[in-house]
Amino acid sequence: MVRALKVYTLLFVCIFCYGIFHFQLKQERQIFLEHNFMDYTLPSQFTGPVSLEFKGLVSDFLLFKFMAFMGGRIEDISKNDPRYQDYTYQSLNAITDLDPYYWDAYLFSEMFLAWSGRAQDANKILEKARKYRENDYYPPYYIGFNYYYFLKDNKKASKYLMEASKLPGCPYYIASLAARLSLYSFQHRNGIVFLKEMLKNTKDKKAKKEFELRIATLEILEYLENKVTLYHSVYKKYPESLKKLVTSGLIDKIPDDPYKGKFMIMQNGRVYTTSKMLPY
Amino acid sequence: MNRILALSWLTFKEGIRDRALMGICIIGLVMLFATIIFTGVFGYDLGKVLVDLNLSTIAFAGLLLTFFVNINLMAKDIDKRTIYCVLSKPLSRTEYIIGKYLGLILLVFIALFILLMVSSGIIWFVKSFYAQIYFKNFSWACFLQACFYEILMFFVLNAVVIFFSSISTSSFLVLLFTIATYITGQTIEEVMQFFKKEAMAEQLPQINQWIIDIAQYIFPNFSAFDIKTLASHGKFLPMEHTMALIGYSAIYTILLLFFASLIFNKREIT
To answer: Is B186 on the interface with A (CB under 8 A)?
Structure first.
């Protein structure tokens, strides 16, 4: 009886001590994890062969680790700490090397990299998605958006958005936006050819109407630019205004902008519209 | 033929009596059920994660079974001297090798088939639990194709076990050789791709390139059997690929069993 009591007492003491040490260790680990910035991901050149036939599983694990790491530091991330951005790029690059079809990882690259000033890096990762997810319109759409919104490169933005709008499931207004960006980058001919192609393939009446309006505007812009070039070849200078084209007899009158804006000539001889092809 | 079938049935029965098999099955089942919880943690590609986890569990269970049950089944005969009883019967050593191999692959096939059934049930359950938009790339055909490829891989891997068991008497050495062959087979294609890159190819001496070329003929290309990533994204491989793989694995297995029986016939069993 006494022996049994001793054994149970010892057991109780052990369990009690275990509870204390477990609690202490937990606190110590919390401090350790907060002070040790584990911002590394092994490159895919290493993780690929080491994963053997479990590359998909390892990519899931790495993404889970990434989500847990970033989720706990969401406030710090908003401070644009380059360490987090480097970690994000390395992690998402490795994950998408292991599984190049993994959309969640690509989505995170757009969310965390593009919106924290690393649009070029986001595009590098999204280019992989564009290669492997060939029927998905999101990768070229995001790349195009990054070029337009963050990198201010309308020419490239227009190219990628045009590509996205040809893929299944893409809303028609992306095509419309692509054509508008082609106007901003003075790629009128590209815009016309692209919209005419889209017009043939669309059945949506609203989209058709919008495409026709844009084609008409871009064709006027192209027509006017051709006349400006003609004027330049005759007078060896660009006209100060479009009225000069009328007075010189190259055109009968300045055409109306279908979007109710006004056509104007830039110093470099390019023609632009004040409506920016935005609905009136 | 009857003698071979009788031996393979005996090997299978001996295998299912092994307690390690129960342990592996329990681990496999627990891991499969855990996928229900883990899938929900992810954001969009739930179908991909679900298939990844299920196929990886099946593959992992198959590997444990091959490394820790099947290798012992082969070694036990020699360790416990039961091989004398078997070989004293009107059974040639070649028949012994074939019978043992069929027994081992039957054991792997049955175990993986059970896991596949449970896994299919879990996938069906999880799919009905979440909105279908998360599973738009999921395809049963791709999932079953990946399982079929995995089972084919275990047919070859078990032939490797038989081959090394015919050379070595130590089960530990057989385990080491089999794991080394498995790792080499899984990575050889990637290493080949790496060395074939122009910059690397120029730096490498000719002899090294020959060694790499010969190595890829000697070691089985296990990475060709791994289509888990493609299956998780609903990408079905064409039948030509499947037929080529079936042909490759059948020929490789026959060659291994041929060499195994050749060595085993010349071996002195003491």
So the answer is: yes
Number of neighbours of residue B141 by Cβ within 10 angstroms:
10
List CB contacts of B132: < 8 A, sequence separation 6 or more: none
Number of domains chain B is built from: 1
The CA R_g of chain A, rounded to the nearest whole Å, is: 30
A95–B contact, CB cutoff 8 A? no
Q: Which of A53, A63, A98 sits opposite B226 (nearest CB)?
A: A53
Q: Which residue has 């490795």 as its token pair? A: A94
Domain that holds residue B259: 2-266
Start-to-end CA distance of chain B, whole Å, equals: 27
In DSSP terms, which residues pair with A271 in a beta bridge? A265
Q: What is the ipTM of this complex?
A: 0.83
**Residue-wise pLDDT tens for chain A (280 aa)?**
788 899 999 999 999 999 999 888 888 887 777 666 556 777 888 888 888 899 999 999 999 988 888 877 766 666 667 778 888 899 999 999 999 999 999 999 988 888 888 999 999 999 999 999 999 999 999 999 999 889 989 889 999 999 999 999 888 888 888 888 887 777 788 788 878 877 877 777 888 888 888 888 888 988 898 888 889 888 888 888 888 888 888 888 989 988 888 888 888 888 888 888 777 6
